Fold this protein.
Amino acid sequence: MVASRFADQPQGGQGELEEEDIDDEDCECSDGDSECGCRLEDDDEDDGSTKSYDGSDADYYYVLKEEREERKQEKLLEQKEKERQRDIDINKEEEVRVAYKSLSKVRKERETVGVGMLAGQSFKLFCSDHVDIFYSDSRVYGTKRVEFRQLDNTEIPDSHKLEPGNETDVLYGDVYLDADANCGFGPFSPPKRASRKTFKVKSCDGMYELSFKFIGNGYLRLRVSREMVFLNPYIASPRAPPATAPETFEFVGIQRDLEKERAERRAIRSPPSPRESWFEMNHPMGSWRHW
């Protein structure tokens, strides 16, 4: 077959080279054929295309290139995590906004909503503005929260002392915005009923003011200055707020169910037993269907 195709070609080395070239083009070998030289040649070309630099520092060059690619992937992942956290905070802000708006209806209907016992309670705080500025890594972006606790009677200033038995009406609190920005506040007397009224409380050092609105049903709102948000008592020159930072940060708070959170963490650490798998619990042939 090959000889007939080259019957009119001049004999000699040139004709042999052209024949070899055409044989390669017409090759019908499989990818797994180890006897075929054309595949080996293609592999060599592919390898050269992925590592085209062959300078004396080639090994170091490709190590740096791989590290740059890893950093790029890490930044993409961090951005996705930041967007996810921001969506969470926005949803919680909307949840509390709806609760706050409902107070108007309660007031019109001359109903009341109790604040509930605040002593010993913790509220998770959410603020999308805070996420925009401070979120960098889920491993270091801690839970924003505010906690309330009772004071020992000996700690209560004379101006806040009440009749015996009513000491629980005076509270102290701690707010944690991140690893650096945290402070204590109080003492103060919390409201009994939910309202839109603002309760202003000084930080323990008297430098900052915290403005609370207790909405009831496990919700609150908290406003603080950006100076407090950027607080960092551990370094001489704290980070300066960027121009885009709002003058006041508004957080919403949702009361935490600590027992539920602990149970959820235990569930994550403990994989389900074979009898608690999706198949066993939901499939018609699962063992739970035959109890």
